[in-house]
């Protein structure tokens, strides 16, 4: 089995080449994709301003509100459908998402530390409530 992970920018710039490469593989393929830029773009078009936070280690992450989660699911589902459509002509293909019942399970972190606008460490919940 081959696992392929492609970020949203790779999909935007090299989608056709990526699909052709996966079609040529004889093994079973699990394809994991991103699409953060597309989510941000769609959110802004819908009047939802994306929120990002930075960890003390300098890692920038999306803080997904309930509103933006709906956009995230919509955009990622559209990307998945597009991938399935293109690959299904030569391979048996399905899309699975964390939004599909209990297909994928994860546990939310209890506490996330971020760096606030003043450069100080703060708990994510405290930082979001304080805005």
Tell me what the structure shows.
The chain starts with a strand and ends with a helix. The protein contains 4 helices and 6 strands; from the N terminus they run E-H-E-H-E-E-H-E-E-H. The strands form 3 sheets. A two-stranded parallel ribbon has the order 1-2. The protein has a two-stranded antiparallel ribbon with strand order 3-4. It has a two-stranded antiparallel sheet with strand order 5-6. It has a single domain, classed as 3-Layer(aba) Sandwich (Carbamate kinase), CATH 3.40.1160. The protein is elongated and about 55 Å long. The longest helix has 22 residues. By secondary structure, it is of the alpha+beta class.
Describe the protein's topology.
Blueprint: E1 2-6, H1 8-24, E2 29-33, H2 36-45, E3 51-54, E4 60-63, H3 66-87, E5 113-115, E6 121-123, H4 124-129
Parallel strand pairs: 1-2
Antiparallel strand pairs: 3-4, 5-6
Helix pairs in contact: 2-3
SS field, number of helical segments: 4
Task: Assign the structural class, choosing from mainly alpha, mainly beta, alpha/beta, alpha+beta, or little secondary structure.
Answer: alpha+beta
- Strand order across the largest sheet: 1-2
**CATH fold description:** Carbamate kinase
């Amino acid at each position: 089995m081959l696992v392929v992970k492609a970020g949203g920018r790779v999909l935007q710039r090299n989608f056709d080449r990526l699909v052709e490469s996966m079609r040529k593989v004889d093994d079973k393929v699990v394809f994991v994709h991103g699409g953060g830029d597309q989510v941000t773009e769609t959110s802004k078009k819908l009047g939802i301003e994306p929120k990002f936070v930075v960890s003390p280690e300098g890692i920038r992450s999306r803080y997904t509100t309930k509103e933006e989660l709906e956009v995230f699911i919509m955009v990622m589902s559209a990307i998945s459908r597009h991938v399935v459509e293109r690959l299904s002509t030569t391979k048996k293909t399905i899309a699975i998402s964390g939004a599909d019942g209990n297909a994928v399970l994860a546990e939310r972190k209890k506490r996330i530390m971020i760096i606030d606008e003043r450069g100080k460490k703060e708990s994510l919940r405290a930082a979001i409530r304080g805005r």
